Structure formats: structure tokens, C-alpha cells
Amino acid sequence: MQLPSHQTPYKPAPWRPMLPPPLREQALAVAHDVFDRLEDIEHITRIAQRATQQSSNPAHWRATSLSLGFAGLAFAFAYCCQCFPEARYKQTAFQLATLVSQGTHTEPCNMPGFFEGTAGVATLLTLLSTTDERYMPLAQAVNAGLCEQVLSLSYPHDERRGVATQEYDVVNGAAGTLAYLLTLPESDEMALQASNKLIDYLIWLSGFDEHGLHTCDRWHVPHELLSTEQKRQMYPKGVYDCGLAHGIAGPLAALACAWHKGRKRPGHYEAINHITLWLMQHSFYDTWGINWPIVVEPDALQSKVMQNALRKPGRAAWCYGAPGIARAIWLTGLALNKRFLQHVAVQAIEAVLQRPQTHTRIISPTFCHGWAGLLQICLRFANETGNEVLRASIPTIVEQILSSYRASTPLGFQDVEVEGTLVDQVSWLTGAPGVAMTLLAAATAVEPDWDHALLIS
Predict the structure, then answer these.
(1) Is 182 exposed, middle or buried (0-12, 13-18, 19+ CB in 10 A)?
(2) Exposed, middle or buried, 2 (CB in 10 Å: 0-12/13-18/19+)?
(3) What gap in Å lies between CA 303 and CA 209, rounded to an integer?
(4) What is the pLDDT of residues 383-399, one digit of tens each?
(5) How far apart are CA 268 and CA 205, in angstroms?
């Protein structure tokens, strides 16, 4: 691996638009159009219902869901309100937040997770509070409820059983919940206790105890705890997941953020170092540079030959692949003041940008597994490094996203599923709202602090 001869400190610049004026105006116009299409709540409800018929993998629409519900739409409008002063956007955000509140009565948030639980609603209310103080009392009440849920929940600590991804991951597990709790003031005693509990759980997951002794890598997901029948057929011995959304990169990023915030626990440093080393050991090089597989199978741990045979590179996205893992390693380097790790992360994202599209396997403009997620990650890297290669990539990715815009479709953008199915998706994670959010992040001077919830920052 080639490192620069001068390892100068990275210094984030003030957030500013990263697009040339004509492209910036185009991005803003398209973002405006998407948000305008999302204002009619009855209309978007019908579209959401139709999406379940279009999709080859339909998901249940829940009012309180941040990934697929009114909470996610309100989340997008909360950032929209920061970027656009129009009162109608604030009114739409309020209407959506009201629907979320009503939804808690019929489908209460009984779990703390980020995408489908209380942490997601808390994240939404905190973001809404930045432009409207009316949400602050409710946000504080939800924060207290979230902390109570975390403190009362028993996270599995059984090496023989193994773990399920939803117990530790960013999407609905401990890593995603911790990401939000770290935004609360340390003076909040319940939040401190809850975050400490989650940090300790993720340290346990890494295989370390409070004395800094390592026993085993406990994030192995056994066959019976894999989330789908397809995965159970593919991985009869289970897997070690590498990705940011569902894999060990998520706990690494959360532990790094906690360390950076000064929330340090016994075994914490050792856990961060071990997970980082594990990810580095299971990386590989292709023609363009460093990359990572989607998962590592248990048999491959014993044999490099077997590892090479089973290796399947992840899509170049937020959820899986080099971009998300690179951000976890970057946050680790930042937290531990290890410039080498930051350079590894930069080289990894540069390699992503050099790969042809056939090798990135990105086919959708959307956030989770598409161009919008890659754009958000590149925006952060470009802002924090000043790297000219990364800065030059921003307009190119935005142009790629805008090329997917179709005014004739209900939302302007469609999700493209793995099978090539086109879905008019209202979800901010896999639909048009998330695309509009990242376009605003690239085209405005309003820093997208919301991406900390995804452990991008």
C-alpha cells in the first residue's frame, strides 16, 4: 500500500456547495421537485401501497418507521426545512410528524432500534427541533423512553448461541442506537448509562472482556439466526458480516465515535483495534486497490486459499462494500489519531471511484445500496480531506444520479432492485426522499449532520 510521504493532518473545511453553478442549480431544482411531489400525503400513501406490489421484496409500511414510513419522510423534510425557507415545507414536516405521533398509538415503538424503533423517532424529533422548537419537549420525552428501553433490554451474551445481525447492527441493533445516544449531552445521566451499556455490549461482541483479554470473535451469525431463507441456504455454517449496515463495520464505527466523544470503557481500545485489524486482514486487492467481501465464511478463516475462493466483493455502497467500511476505518483513525488508518480509508474510496460501474455493481440512484449513499460518503471524505480526486468525483456522481431522474414517474426517481425491478419507492432509505437529501447536501452550505445517524460521520 502506497502512503503519502507527508502525512499531514486532515482538517475539515466549513461545509459548502461542491458543485459548479449550473449543476448546482440543476440539483436544487430536482430536489425541489421531489419534495414538491412528496407534499400530498394521500398521494404518497397510495404510492407507498403500490410500491409493495411493484417490489420483488415488499416491506411493511409503518408510520413510525424511519426506513419505510412517515417518520422517514418527515426526516427528509426536516433537512429540507434547513435548506429551503419555504413555510409549506415546515408545514408538511409537521403534518408528517403528527402522523408519526398518531402511529405510535396503533403500532408503538417497543424496541430501541434506529430504522424501526424508538431511536429513529428520537433522531427525527431532534432534527425537526433544529428549525422548530415546538418539538423539543417531545424529543426529550422520547429520549427518556429510549434510555429506559435500552437499560431494560437484555442483549444476548451467549457465545454458544451466537448473535443475529439485528441485535448489534446499525439498522436496528446496538450500533445504530448508540450512534444516536452519543448525540445527547453527557450530563444526561440516563443517556450516559444507556450508551455505556451499549458500548460494553459491542466490546463483548468483539471478543474482549473488561480486562482487555480476547477470547473469540463473537459477531459470528450462525445458520439458524441468519435473516432470510436465501442466506440460510447460501451459508450453512453462518457468516461473519463485514458491511456497515449489518456487519461488524457498524459496531466499529459506533465504538470509534464513542471513543472520540470521550465515552471510554474497559476493553474499548482493544476492541476497536481488534475489529480494525480483522477488517484489514480480510480485505483484498483488485486492479484498482483495496476492497472487502460482503461476508467471511467460517471455513475461510482457516485458509487463505479458501478465503480467495469464497470471496465476493460487496457492492460499492453505504450498506455493504468499500465505501461504508472505509468510513468506519476513517472514523477509527480519527478517534485514535492514527493517520495510517485515515490514509487507508482514503485510498479505499479512491479505488471505488476508479472502478468501472460493472465492478461497483451500483444500479440504483437511491441511498442504501445506490449512488446517493456513495455520494454522501464522498461528500464527507471530500470535506474532511480536501482531496482533489474526491472533490472532482462529486459532480460526476451527481450527474449520474440526475441521469436517473424521470419527470414522468410519480416521485422523479425510482429504486432499481437487484432483479432490475423499478419501484416508485417512498422510503427515504431506498427511494426518492433519500436521493433528494443527498442532492441538497451536495448543493447547499447546510451541513448534513443527519448522516451521523448512519455512522457516516
Answers:
(1) buried
(2) exposed
(3) 27
(4) 999 999 999 999 999 99
(5) 11
